[in-house]
Amino acid sequence: MAFTLRQLQFFVAVAEQGTISRAAQNLSISQSSVTEAIKELEADLGVELFERHPRGLNITHKGHQFLRHATKILADVSDARRTFFGGQAATTGQLKLGVTSLVAGYVLSDLLARYRRAHPAVDITAIEDNGDYLEHLLVGGKLDVAVMVTSNLRDRMALQSEILEVSAYRLWLPLGHPLASAEIISIGDIATEPLIMLSVDEIEENTGKLLSAIGAKPHVAFRTRSVEAVRSLVATGAGVALLPDLVYRPWSLEGDRIESRDVSGSLPVVQVGMVWRRGSSLPAAARDFIGIAQAQRTVRQRL
């Protein structure tokens, strides 16, 4: 029996939420329906998509590989419906985009893929830089839209923003780390751990504020601008990391496992969104890009 779109939606929801119960709550259906759909999907594929444990589920390496395909299939179906019912003439022209480092490979790549499929005649140029410089380019009319961290947006009078995703901070640990089995992890538990610090956007600033709030100075073992470097260093036991769940993946490039755990207390969140100049007359290409981003956000909220 071939898998269904409904099974894919349930699988993506469980992968994102980490437990059957949270996925069922978001989907507004019974836990048994989600459980049965996942079992049928695993039987159809002939692989185990999740490792079951008392605290919930961990996606397997095969499951993580299939997740990329599942999200692409769902996005393609959404695009097909949009194209079929849109009845619009093909958009042409140029789209000038900006993106910050943290979200370039985790939000923009999927948005661009969907946009290119829907509007292949548009000439797209994109620049990656820090948030301050992208704000400067937006205000000056050098960019149409930027996809960036909006939590620390500075010029809110001149710029308009719309949130696409809100991501909480979580603790990344190597497999077998003592904290991975702790019932509750506090900021104090992390204070003595060597930290792998991601120094892009507001990450380092937020981590420093968290630890200084309890009178601790961050013990930074390694500082890098590469998320993949953080993944590899954490997976091999060089330290732990506090990062938004947005960029979490359970495997390093070398295939080593990375655990992710909640931390008790008031942790910041990272808001990722679209930003454009307030009151500007956006070209059709930019309006279509914003529309596709809004549609994708709606699909994710329904999963």
Overview of the structural elements:
Strand 1 (50-53) and strand 2 form a beta hairpin. Helix 4 (61-86) packs across helix 5 (101-118). The radius of gyration is 20 Å and the shape is globular. It has helices at residues 5-17, 20-27, 31-45, 61-86, 101-118, 131-139, 187-190, 203-212, 227-235, 284-302; strands at 50-53, 56-59, 94-99, 123-128, 145-149, 159-174, 195-198, 220-224, 241-244, 258-261, 269-277. Strands 3, 4, 5, 6, 9, 10 and 11 form a 7-stranded mixed beta sheet that branches. A two-stranded antiparallel ribbon has the order 1-2. It has 303 residues and is α/β, with parallel strands linked by helices. Helices cover 43% and strands 22% of the residues. The protein contains 10 helices and 11 strands.
Order of helices and strands: HHHEEHEHEHEEHEHEHEEEH
Strand content bin: 15-25%
* Helix percent band: 40-55%
Quaternary state of this entry equals single chain
Structural class: alpha/beta
Mean pLDDT across every amino acid position? 84
Q: Which consecutive residue ranges, at least 5 long each, have pLDDT under 50?
A: none
Short characterization:
Helix content is 43%, strand content 22%. By secondary structure, the chain is α/β, with parallel strands linked by helices.
State the main characteristics:
7-stranded mixed β-sheet; 303 residues; two-stranded antiparallel sheet; 10 helices; single chain; alpha/beta
Please outline the helices and strands.
Elements: H1 5-17, H2 20-27, H3 31-45, E1 50-53, E2 56-59, H4 61-86, E3 94-99, H5 101-118, E4 123-128, H6 131-139, E5 145-149, E6 159-174, H7 187-190, E7 195-198, H8 203-212, E8 220-224, H9 227-235, E9 241-244, E10 258-261, E11 269-277, H10 284-302
Parallel strand pairs: 3-4, 3-5, 7-8
Antiparallel strand pairs: 1-2, 5-11, 6-9, 6-10, 6-11
Helix pairs in contact: 1-2, 1-3, 1-4, 2-3, 4-5, 5-10
